[in-house]
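User: Predict the complex with adenosine-5'-triphosphate.
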Amino acid sequence: MLALRTRGLGKTFKVKRKEPGLRGSVRSLLRPEWEEKPAVRGIDLTVGQGETVAFLGPNGAGKSTTIKMLTGILHPSFGEAEVLGLSPWKQRSELAYRIGTVFGQKSQLWYHLPPVDTFELIGRVYELKREDYARRSRELIERFELGPYLRTPVRKLSLGERMRCEIAAVFLHRPSLLFLDEPTIGLDVVVKQRIRELIRESNRSEGTTVVLTSHDPTDVEELCSRVVVIHHGGLLLDEPVERMKRDVLNRKTIRLTTASELRESELPLPEGTNAVRKEGRTFTIEVDLGRTAVEDVLGGWIGRVRIEDITVEDPPLEETIKHIYGRRGEKEEGA
Ligand SMILES: Nc1ncnc2c1ncn2[C@@H]1O[C@H](COP(=O)(O)OP(=O)(O)OP(=O)(O)O)[C@@H](O)[C@H]1O
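Assistant: Here is the predicted structure with adenosine-5'-triphosphate placed in the model:
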């Protein structure tokens, strides 16, 4: 069964054209001129029930606009969408009973109230039967280990504690489709891991469909089986995470600061590595894990290079997307 399907879904915003300077501001106030700004350029997408899909793209790519159309917040300019068999903008309140949304940057809990009060409120808004609400909230409080924070006003909770409550709250009405927008933003590594486990477990035990946006590659790797990349409002890539990992995430970035000035030619770089930047004494080196291992690269420097500092990181998602974009461009040119 399909959780959602879109055909040629798009949104064009009408924005005021503004000329520079004070005179321009006054003119656009008195005699505004409008221009069309395409945000989403016609997306075809299907997501099956129970799938876990990462929805990625650089800032301004059109992710939020797409999610807002799929949740009925925005009316599209063209195209069609069906979410759980409903039209999001025509049957918005019906849909609200069946989906859940978490925005990492915005809280749905009442700031001055303890989470337990918001839970009660959500139970009433979604018209859950008393005994059903009691059973479900008990189960979630246990699973998310919320006991210690339940009666503390939200304003006094740490970000990690609050996010656990946020995610538990969204599961109260048993949504069959979850939209998670940056659910682990700003959290420390341990809390991020716990949040991911809880989302994964809900997907496994309740078959909840998950559509996630995140700038953290670990969220994508650990939570999703499929990745959809949007760029300049259009679909760029739609493939299993495994394949993307093999092709693109199979890289690490090493940042090496040497204790003394070193020319690029003096740094031993084995096959499968590529020095992409040198700023002062800091080199940025990309490692293709399919061709060499990070420890072999580091091993080649020990005793030969005086090292002041070294870090090993995943390439930033923005770079990964640029890499995908480059690869696609090459394919299209070659076609
Ligand atoms: N209400 C609006 N009016 C005019 N333009 C808008 C509006 N909302 C979004 N846009 C524009 O549409 C484009 C897509 O924005 P959107 O917020 O969907 O991107 P995004 O992929 O979610 O980015 P981010 O990762 O930064 O949240 C951007 O160029 C943005 O400036």
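The two ends are 35 Å apart (CA to CA).
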